[in-house]
Amino acid sequence: MGINKRVHKFTKYEFLKKRHINEVKMSRQTSQTDYLKTMIAVIHQTLHSGMWGMEFDKNGKMTEVKWSDEFRKMLGYQNTTDFPNELSSWSDLLHKDDRERVIKEFMDTINDYTGQKSYDVKYRLITKTGEWRHYHAMGRLIRRENGAPRSYIGLFVDITDDVRQEQLLHEALKQAEAANVAKTEFLSSMSHDIRTPMNGIIGMTAIAGSHIDDKERVLDCLRKITTASKHLLNLINEVLDMSKIESGKIDMQSDPLFLPDLIDNLINMVRPQIESHGHELEVSIQNLIHENVLGDSLRIQQVFVNLMGNAIKYTPDGGNISLSIAEKTHPGSKAGCFEFVFEDNGIGMTEEYVKKIFEPFSRAEDTRTNNIQGTGLGMTITQNIVRMMGGNIRVESQINEGTRITVTIFLPISKSEDINEKNFIDLPILVADDDWTVGESASQMLCSLGMKCQWVLSGKDALEKVLEAHKKNEDFFAVIVDWKMPEMDGVETTRAIRKAVGDEIPIIIISAYDWSDIEDEARKAGATAFISKPLFRSRLARLFHSLLQKEDIIEETSALAAFEDLKLEGKHILLAEDNELNAEIAKEVLSSTGAEVDRAENGRLVLDRIKEKPEGYYDLIFMDIRMPVMNGYEASRAIRAAEGQYPREIPIIAMTADAFAEDVQAAKEAGMNEHVAKPLDLDALASVLYRYLAAKDRKTHSQA
User: Fold this and answer.
1) Half-sphere exposure (CA, 13 Å, Cβ side) for 119?
2) Residues of 414-440 as b/e, b for ≥16 C-beta within 10 angstroms?
């Protein structure tokens, strides 16, 4: 029933009730009883209601109670056997919170010898099915000439729908009022948060201008301007993202997703913050069988970066942060159930704030967080994304003890790489890691591959195990050693094993950090390969497969090269950008790597440049999206549709201010390989250049 009909019904009901009450306020006559019965019958036919009545003897003693069949049926009863004509059959059904008030109202009417008081009360009754429903009972007591009660006649109306509608309207009003208060607070907070980095940008620019000859001072100002700019951009992105979620314009993608790459990207993104705060980060894997899934990698990454970023921000320097990943069994679900637990030993939250942490614009009132800026939208966006994936998020926290956030999502399983794990069965392997959690997790993972795993806590113990096995002529298939261990680190352990038993046993060094600083030393010491933490089943399987096949092992770097370390001399980059200022910035940045950069002002000119140059001349294209004549999507499709292998293989990277997940997906569908958002993030840019240019050369040289 629509709200207009409800209002009409309720208005009619109130009118009839008032008419009924006014009509019975006539002079006390015997005929009133019949008149009342007639009036109540008329109202009864109009509303969903039932009639009730009582008779009294000359002494005022109740002699009879009657409930109409409609009265009984409203409560779920069919006849007098189920619901007898007794006062207790009604009073026993009263809600305990209403009982005293209703009975008092009933007795007050009987005791009102002036004859002016009518019975008019609302209460709850429990039906035969156990449902509490709301009713409005009305009645009038007819008295004899001596004042003694003669008859009690009334109407009983089901008003449950009206009460619930009123409750919904009241709740909606409360929520609207709360939202208005929250938005007012949000705007006040945002005004402060936006002005803070803007003040920094303007102030540092002025300082740099007044110290133009002081190189160190200018560089310091530029670093601070960059930091403030990134923070301002993050504020804007969150507000815009929340707006898209609320308007329902956000779409979730379902693309092939490799979980190890997802976690690697997360760690690489947050590592600078981790290191700047002196935090310890521990990542553990438990029973992760399916690593190839289908999902929206950008949105999942957004969730993880927000949760990890909060853990870093709200944990005092030198804290401990952990991420555990586990695959859970979930009966009835064809998709894989994955649980990600983010935990820290930071400042924690009050129980009251945890209850409203997902509310838009909410921020804890805590002096400890006054200097930590944010929109109050991150957790709202996070919860919405998790729910869109059919998952859930749970927050547990205690003041000064830390926070634990558990994200459970369901992702369809995708086809995994075809590696015959039967070849690993019963192969003996040794793991040396002083971290109990990592060692135990690695041991379980290797055992799940069918290998015979032993695990020790130090390099010294590893050396003893290797010697013991060698003497028995039962050498290990491979030895995995942690880089950073007390007393005897991974490189020293490798050197000692090589000296003791020779070069036959593969030695793999694992690290949570970039091993480039120790790679040359480790290679000279005898290291066969490198692998990064956390250890994933698929990566271990690929590595062991290569060892069994005696293939050359090409390791992926565990950390991105710094932008200033990129050496791209001899590389040719084509930059598609119509805006003069943006083109100047991008060209200056890219040229600093030693690469030669050509510019095209629109998509049509991009096609012309490619045709003018010899095939294979350009190593990479950075493509703006919004350009005149031909936009970036059209240009990319035209390149991919051209004849020959080169147009299909040249890397095309979107470089655009269209930075939502849908924009990234659109770029991919147009044939682009990657997406770099404006304003340019040098870390993201370095990552792309490294993977598509520098790392490609490194792999080619290694294979040669």
Assistant:
1) 28
2) beeeeeeeeebeebebbbbbbbeebbe
Tens-place pLDDT, residues 319-333? 999 999 999 887 666
For residues 697 and 663, give the distance between their C-alpha atoms in angstroms, rounded to a whole number: 30
From 202, 267, 139, select the one nearest 533 (Cα to Cα).
Answer: 267
**Contact yes or no for 293/412 (Cβ under 8 A):** yes
Tokens matching residue 601: 């002002």
3-state SS of 339-366 is: EEEEEECCCCCCHHHHHCCCCCCCCCCC
Torsions phi, psi for 482 (to 5 deg) = -75, 145
The pLDDT score that the predictor gives to residue 697 is: 57
Residues 6+ apart with CB under 8 A from 320: 279, 280, 282, 344, 345
Put residue 154 in one of left, alpha, beta given phi > 0 → left and psi -120 to 50 → alpha: beta
- Sequence-distant contacts of 22-27: CB under 8 A, at least 24 apart: 24/118, 24/140, 25/116
297: amino acid identity, one letter: S
Domains of the chain, each with CATH number or no CATH: 3-158 (3.30.450.20), 166-246 (1.10.287.130), 272-411 (3.30.565.10), 421-549 (3.40.50.2300), 563-703 (3.40.50.2300)
Per-residue pLDDT tens digits for 270-298 = 887 888 899 999 888 888 888 889 988 87
Q: Which amino acid is at 614?
A: P
Please identify which residue in the block is written with the tokens 């504020």.
235
Give CA separation, 293 vs 129, 255, 300, 327, 387, in Å.
Answer: 46, 8, 12, 12, 18
The structure tokens 């499709």 sit at 637
Q: What is the DSSP letter of 552?
A: P
Cα angle vertex 642, ends 639, 645, to 5°? 95
Using the 8-state DSSP alphabet, how is residue 693 labeled?
A: I
φ/ψ of residue 53, rounded to 5: -155, 160
Element at 641 (helix H, strand E) = helix 632-641
